[in-house]
Design goal:
There is one protein chain. With about 280 residues, the chain is of the alpha/beta class. The chain has one domain: Alpha-Beta Barrel (TIM Barrel). The strands form 2 sheets. Strands 1-12-11-8-7-6-5-2 form an 8-stranded parallel beta sheet. A 4-stranded antiparallel beta sheet has the order 3-4-10-9, with no helix packed on it. The mean pLDDT is about 95.
């Protein structure tokens, strides 16, 4: 079981000591052209987690390739590049440009709730990327889809090597006195502990549907959270919002699961479901 970070929750060039605690570093989502993202305020704390409406702010593909990626490669940690876009060609062109020794895995961000542009279907994007690169492709899906298992099967058939589950879910916070939205965009993506039950259900559903390798994420704070995601079918686990408050979370979580046989735990929730059925 590998411990990763959730895309956008860690800047390895600013905090390399945190990234080097991980078994792989996942970059912020890269788009073909630079993006400033949404107007501030674009982060808000709530009683249930954190809202963000960053909007895929990033330096763009060319600057990432020429500047950030060579420096990330020096960390000695496998690099997973999160790729975004607004049509299948955007994703495929970036994947083709990444086909190099510095990149271990491509994570296709098919589920960002903080941009308005509509992308092509998840399966169409995966198929285009599969034609453009031999790198492993993980499709990051949204738990908000009414039939997540069907989407998982579709991206598997299109050539995905694995799944990342889940991205944030759309949420909103209001100022208590003015009752106006806290975020300039109005709504944003909810992350943090409240997301864990959603993540467990999504991983359970998609593993049953596809048996693909899954990176489970959403509300992971403790070693027990890791164990539960593995029990639902996650082969790997990513830490997200917890990294903002606890930079040593990767080492702490690893210590908390040191005595657990994760191979024995893997998929046990499905065995329980079979018994109940």
């Amino acid at each position: 079981m590998r411990l990763l970070n959730a895309s956008g929750c860690l800047d390895a060039l600013i905090a390399p000591e945190v990234a080097m605690q991980l078994d792989g570093f996942v970059t912020k989502t890269i788009t073909p052209l630079p993006r400033e993202g949404n107007a501030p305020p674009r982060i808000a704390e709530t009683a249930y987690g954190m809202l963000n409406a960053i909007g895929l702010a990033n330096p763009g593909r060319e600057r990432f390739l020429s500047d950030a990626l060579p420096r990330l490669a020096l960390l000695g940690v496998p690099i997973w590049v999160s790729v975004g876009g607004f049509c299948a060609a955007d994703y495929a062109e970036t994947c083709a440009a990444l086909d190099r020794d510095a990149v271990a895995v491509v994570e296709l961000n098919l589920s960002c709730p903080n941009v308005d542009e509509a992308a092509d279907s998840a399966a169409e994007i995966v198929a285009a990327c599969r034609r453009s690169t031999s790198l492993p492709l993980y499709a990051k899906l949204s738990a908000a889809h009414p039939d997540l298992g069907e989407v998982a099967r579709a991206v598997a058939a299109a050539g995905a090597d694995g799944l990342s589950l889940v991205n944030t879910l759309r949420g909103m916070a209001l100022h208590p006195r003015t009752l106006e939205p806290v975020l300039a965009r109005g709504q944003g993506g909810l992350s943090g502990p409240s997301l864990k039950p959603v993540a467990l259900a999504a991983v359970h559903t998609c593993y049953a549907a596809t048996k693909l390798p899954i990176v489970g994420m959403g509300g992971v704070v403790t070693g027990q959270d890791v164990v539960e995601l593995v029990a639902c079918g996650a082969r790997d686990v990513a830490l997200g919002t917890v990294l903002f408050s606890d930079p040593n979370a990767p080492s702490r979580v690893r210590a908390e699961i040191a005595s657990v046989d994760l191979d024995e735990v893997f998929g046990t929730s499905h065995k329980a479901s079979e018994v109940l059925a």
